[in-house]
Fold these 3 entries.
Entry 1:
Amino acid sequence: MRPVSHVIISTGVSLAVYVWLHSISCAFFCLFAGVLIDVDHILDYFFCKKRIPFSYKELNDYCKFDVEGKISVIFHSYELVIVLWIVYTFFNSRVLLGIAIGATVHLLCDAFANPFKFKSYLLSYRHYHKYERKKFYVDGFFKDKK
């Protein structure tokens, strides 16, 4: 899913959270987590290419069209979202609630909008497959990329 879509969706969810809870901190961190979770794409690029992407196009092309290599996107994982919700239940913090909601919404949007297999959002699944990029996409995705 494109970053602008995450900004729009996270803004809407954050506004709903503010109306529901009347908490600016919860709404802010919901927006913050819902958008900035994508920083792991930059980390993947850096570890794969050994340099920082200097333009959005460069990073976007890497994410969409680089069919070889590895991908970890460590923040895009069901396990992380589960841990966030567990930590929230222990500390009952509005900040943690906002982060958990934002991360959950981001992950669900990606899971339904991106060409990844649903189980590919398990970090343990990606680890088991040694982070090989081709293992995570839906069948037939790479046929038109060659």
Note: The chain has a mean pLDDT of 91.
Entry 2:
Amino acid sequence: MFYALAAAALAASLLLSGCGGGGDSMESTDTSTDAAPETRADLCALLAAADIEEALGAAAGDPQSGDEGLGQCAWAAADGSGTVVVLTLENAVLGSFDEFVTDFGEEFGGENPPPDEYHPVDGVPGDWAMYVAEEHMVRAFRGGHVLEISSASAEEAQVVDLATRAMGRLP
């Protein structure tokens, strides 16, 4: 289940990066930056099992680091029923939701992103954040990075709660 959720997060990143065509991409996933090596370990410190249980009502086990992007951390359900939360840190070039809308339109022939699938989120620390409904994910942007917070079975408000907690602790 961890790999399925991680693959879904990667698929969302690729969709949003415009990987299918030429031209400018909406997001860079270049991992060759000079990010601190301890980034991977730090991602697991952004949420505690108690945060997840409080936000989702599901007990989480110990976090497991992953190798996606600049770092990844996943929490499985304490009962072993699957992954409940995944955090992934990526490089990003989008500066605002308006830039996302423009890039989306360029990628999809002038269409605007469907607001029930993609919309800005207020109150999450950082420069700006948006919700991606299909992935049950908040993408929270700060500086040149985006922290993706996803939970396959969570409602939007629950993922926003987790994003608010994680971004509030991101150095």
Note: Residues 2-30+41-169 form a domain with the Protein Transport Mog1p; Chain A fold (CATH 3.40.1000).
Entry 3:
Amino acid sequence: MDIEDLEPRKVPPKPRNLEEMSLEALAEYVAELEAEIERAKVAIAGKRQARSLADSVFRK
């Protein structure tokens, strides 16, 4: 059994209907997405650093 089998399956959210959104709402939506992208980039950097540290310890 894989550990991923124990995690709940993530259902992707339905895309928002951009045609119905106002200019202000679209700008706010873009800002939210950019903030989420930045959060993901920070998480990636942290995981890369942790992997690099682990590699340096275990690959001597």
Note: The longest helix spans residues 23-58.
